[in-house]
Amino acid sequence: MELQANAALIIIDQQKGILEPRLGRRNNPLAEQRILDLLDFWRRSGRPVTHVQHLSRSPDSVFWPEQSGVEFQDRFLPQDGEWLIQKQVPDAFCATGLEVKLRDAGIGQLVIVGVATNNSVESTARTAGNLGFETWVAEDACFTFDKADYFGTPRSAEEVHAMSLGNLHGEYATVVSSAEILAEVLY
Q: CATH top-level class for 8-186?
């Protein structure tokens, strides 16, 4: 495991709407701080950063355009030179041009963080792996919410998160901690 000099940090859906209490109980309360730790390192080292913004097609969504929930949280506002990708489905590669931008920039390694682990993070990581990108998911820089499974059994956010990471690890991505990623370059 070695972090490349041009590895891209992909930050998914860190918008105001994700903080809505109606989304329910979540896991990983320090996820945003871990994302900020990685973002700070990426910015200081000059590595590429991509901010993914969800523009929902559903009027009852926290990410419905033209209301405050669709806006980035202040602490995650893109800076000059950072990419903004807008998506309408969970997968950040679907109809966004992200793959072309990454390939044109010669980027082959991605670190994916954000929300929700079992939705946009998993969907984007699966596609990244299928497209041949070396994909890492920072498990402590993602979170999700309590959710019932297909059969109606309530599952905790921790269970949903763990299952999603289990789906990804070793097949589509390598699941690591933010500390492991930073240790690759700091020591």
A: alpha beta
